[in-house]
Amino acid sequence: MNNNHQKSTSTGHALSAAAWLDAHYLAAQPEYEAMLRSAGFQRGWRVLDAGCGGGSYLPLLAELLGPHGHISAVDLAPENVAHVQAQIGFGHLHWPADVRPGAVIDWLEAAEFAHVTPLGER
Known about the structure:
Blueprint: H1 18-27, H2 29-38, E1 46-50, H3 58-65, E2 70-75, H4 78-89, E3 97-101, H5 104-116
Parallel strand pairs: 1-2, 2-3
């Protein structure tokens, strides 16, 4: 049986389904965590996780950023976004974050609009 459908998302991207990405992360978790810890993230930073998949990196990112940091996570696959939002809703993930479907350019345009538009004009 071909189980490629279990590894792909509705966007058609191979090896991008949340369950597959989470399993891959767990298989190499020490290496991934060492990489994140050595990347130089600082407490209080705002970070964009572009292509967040199942959200495996998000808890450690939140730990590194601390309570005053913020994570924005975006993924093309709505089912990956739903998976991360469910993890937040179940209380499995705790951090100040926004998670949304779409491309990075969509998020950047929205962020730029919010940044340059006075509150009264939104």
